[in-house]
Amino acid sequence: MDLIFFGIQGSGKGTQAKKLAAEFGYDIFEAGGELRKIAASGSELGNLVKTYVDAGNLVPHEIIMQVVKEAILSRPKDQKILFDGIPRDTNQMKDFDDIMQSAVRDFVVIYFDLDRQTAIERLKGRASIEGRADDADEQAVLRRFQIFEEKTKPVFDEYKKQGKVKAEIKADRSVEEIYEELKKVVS
Fold first, then answer.
1. Whether 110 contacts 182, CB under 8 Å
2. Beta partners for 159?
3. How far apart are CA 83 and CA 107, in angstroms?
4. From CA 67, how far away is CA 126, in angstroms rounded?
5. Which tens digits make up the pLDDT trace of 127-176?
């Protein structure tokens, strides 16, 4: 069964995804990484994505969903996928659900629950370690939180209504504590 991770920036989704992939064989689908991979592929779709990325523009919804579809269909049927960063809004959710249904893939959702202040502190730390300017700018971080609340949280809420949420994990603990709980949830 595939997994979708939800949580605000700084909630530890990426860290936990890497640990889970290493131990349980999940293939991580991270939207930004997939777009960069496709852009570098030299394919027709890749060249189209590259024109948007190189110009610093947002990749349109239809193209993102084409990348999602290609990524899902190109993986072996028995390869478990962990989705991080998709679906981001209700439009993506509808198309994502259609793609998953046509590919006969089922998924559950795991939510990493973290308060904004703790997330801000983590992102500041990540900015100083990794040099990520987008994490150092508190106003930019707050805008990303607002977008998450307005666009992505309704997707999570809808999946919760559908009974797709397998766990809501408190993400204000150590990486190890969170991972131990996550392992129990997925095994």
1. yes
2. none
3. 10
4. 28
5. 888 876 667 788 888 888 998 999 999 999 999 999 999 999 999 999 99
